[in-house]
Backbone:
């Protein structure tokens, strides 16, 4: 029988996923700034992918955010692996 995951552990995992989403957003921002995105994507495909990346960060921020408050930046609360 599966054991339930403690709430603190679930929150810790959510923080890690948010950190990963933030790193992915930073990677896409760097691709854009450097112009390297043109090697891998068409403009339409890159914009679509970037929207999905930003939406992912926003969704993880909503999961991690304390009720009625703002969430702290990923680097402040996420434990380093």
Residues:
């Amino acid at each position: 029988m599966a054991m339930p995951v403690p709430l603190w552990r679930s929150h810790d995992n959510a923080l890690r996923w948010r950190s990963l989403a933030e790193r992915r957003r930073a990677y896409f921002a760097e691709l854009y700034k450097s112009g390297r995105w043109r090697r891998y994507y068409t403009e339409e495909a890159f914009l679509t992918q970037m929207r999905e990346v930003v939406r992912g960060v926003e969704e993880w921020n909503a999961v991690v955010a304390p009720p009625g408050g703002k969430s702290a930046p990923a680097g402040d609360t996420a434990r380093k692996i």
Remarks:
- Helices lie at 7-34, 37-40, 43-64, 74-77.
- The chain has a mean pLDDT of 83.
- Residues 8-63 form one domain.
- The CA atoms of residues 9 and 15 lie 10 Å apart.
